[in-house]
Please model this.
Amino acid sequence: MIEIRLGADDLARIRFARSPLEELIHSVPVLAGTRSSVVHRPWVSMALPRVAGLDLDVLLALASGPRFLPDFLAPPPDRLTGALTDELDAIEATAPEEVVRSLDELRADRGGLLPPELRPLYERPARELGRLTATMRAYWAAAVEPVWPRLRALHDADLEHRSQQLTKGGLAAVFADLHQEAEFANGLLRIDKPLHTATRDACGTGLVLVPCSFAWPKLLVLHNEPYQPTLTYSPRGIGTLWEGTPQSDREPLGELLGRSRAALLAHLDLPVSTSQLAAYLGVSAAAVSQHLAVLRRTRLVTSRRSGRWVLHRRTPLASELLAASGAPGSA
Model:
C-alpha cells in the first residue's frame, strides 16, 4: 500500500497536466509486449516497422520493468501542457546521484541485478543521459508523434471531465472513478499496491494527475522525494482512441454480440471494475452494467467483489470465442 497524506495546502495545489513524455515512456512496454497491448494493437502494427532501425535496448531496459520505472525518466510535468523538448532537457539535466539512486531502486526490484544495457548509464550518467534522450527523440518522431493529435484530443476530453469533477465534488469525486486502486478520504490518498509499501506527506507540494493512454490498465505512482507526488492514469474513452484505423474495423465477434459487448470481452483479460470499463468505453456505468449482466448470463464473464470494488473478468469460454474469431485480445 502506498499512502500520501494531503494537507490543506496540498488540496489547494491539486493540478492536472498533459505530458508527451509520459506517453512516450509508457508506450515502450506496450510496443515491447511487456504491458497489455490489447487496447493499442492498431498503433503497435503501425509503430513496429517504423522503429525497426532504432537501437532501443537502453530505453527498453529502463521502461519495461515489471513494477518500477526510474523516477528520473518521467519527472512530473511543471505545467498544464508540457513540451517534449523541455521534458527531455529536464531528463538530460538530472543529477548523476539521482540517476544512480533510481537505478539502484530498479535493480532491487529485479532481484539485485542491473540489466547490462544500463551499466554505462549507472557508471557514467552525465555522458549517457545525452545518448538516452537522443534515442527518445528519435523514438518519438517514429512512433508517437504521428499519433499525438489523437492522444492529445483524448487528454483534452478527460481533463475537461476531471476538472468539472474537481470543481463540483472535490478530490473525492475525482477518485470515485479514476482507478480501482486509488481511494481518497479524510486527507489520505491510498493506492493499493500489494507488493509495495511507502508513506509520503506531500508537505504543501500538492498532487499532479496526468492522463496517459499507454498507461492502460495501470495506475502509476511517483511518490519519492523530492518529486511532487504524481499519479498517471488511463483517460476516459480510451476504447475509442484508434477508431477509424484499419485494424479497428468490425470484427466477427462484434457482429455476433454487438460491438460494445465484444469490446468489453476483449479488455477483460485482467480483472477490471465497472467504472474502469465505463471510462474505457466513454459510456455510463449503467450501460456497462447492463452489458455485463448479459455476458454473465451467457457465461462469458465472471464477477467477484474485492474490497469496495466488483471486478469482472472474461471466462475461458469467452477467450475461446475471441480466439476463434481472431478478435483483438485473443492473443
Summary: The two ends are 31 Å apart (CA to CA). Confidence is low (pLDDT under 50) at residues 246-250. The chain has three domains: 2-14+150-233, 24-147, 250-325. The first strand starts at residue 2 and ends at 5.
